[in-house]
Amino acid sequence: MKIYNYLCVLALIIVFTSCDLDNFSGPDGGVHGKFIDAHTGELVQQDIIRGTRIELTEHGYDPVAKQYLVVKNDGTYANTQLFQNTYTIEPVDGNFIPIEAEEVDIGANTEMNFEVIPYIRIKNATIKRDGNIVIASFKIEQNVISNVRKIGMYVFPEPIVGEPVHTLSHEVDLNRVVSDDETFTLELDIVSNGSLFNSPKNIEELYFRVGALIDIGNAKFNYAPTVTIPFSL
Asked: Radius of gyration over alpha carbons of the chain, in Å?
């Protein structure tokens, strides 16, 4: 009987303990925002893979585990799974001149925008189809004196196209400083490389981006906005 009573008490403890754990509130905070070119007001285009990250350190805990938010291709970000609290927020591994960390009180739906100066601006970019060929033309405006390591045009069947995510590319190693009046031209023969785009579904359009990489540490690619071009493959 004593063993039976012990097991009953143990079961009640487990039940009530489980109820207490279930009563903890879930994440009730969120933060969203944009990376904005401080000079032009345009969104600073990113890579969703191996691109800029946002490092968050929640106050009030020791030790603290850092959290990271991924920035979308268009330069926006959002996270609705945070707790309302004070955080230190710092963008890291970016494609812009580094900025200082900031302390931010994150509430239910806090907006936090970052005004930055990109290492490179892709200017006057055009991407057009001429038969089987896609031709990109653009200029580069440097905001630092380091060399431009390389330029490239990238294509992928989804909007996340970029240097880390592409089916086909045309890259050129520059390794030099460029002038504002230079025009760069890159071409891709899509149809001749159509077998690379094998997919369970028919492809009716492709996504293209041009970008350039500055030769600075962990800097990421700077891009012009994505262009969509119809292709039947």
From this structure: 24
CA distance 208 to 225: 9
Which pTM value belongs to this model? 0.85
Per-residue pLDDT band at 11 (split at 50, 70, 90): very low
Place of tokens 């994150």: 106
| Cα gap 209→165, rounded to integer Å | 11
Tell me what pLDDT residue 24 has. Answer: 57
**Chain centroid to CA 6:** 56
> How does pLDDT run across 128-182, given as a tens digit for each residue?
999 999 999 999 999 999 999 999 999 999 999 999 999 999 999 999 999 999 9
Q: Which two tokens stand for residue 125?
A: 């970019």
- What is the rounded CA–CA span in Å between residue 117 and residue 165? 24
Q: What are phi and psi of 8, to 5 degrees?
A: -65, -45
Tokens found for residue 36: 């904005």
Long-range contacts: 67-73, Cβ < 8 Å, 24+?
69/31, 71/35, 71/46, 72/46, 72/48, 73/45, 73/46, 73/47, 73/48, 73/159, 73/160, 73/161, 73/162, 73/226
Strand pairing report for 29-37 and 76-82 = antiparallel
Please report the DSSP string for 91-102 in residue order: EES-SB-----E
The tokens for 177 are 């400083």
Spell out the domains of the chain, with CATH numbers in brackets: 29-116 (2.60.40.1120), 120-230 (2.60.40.2060)
SS3 state of residue 13: helix
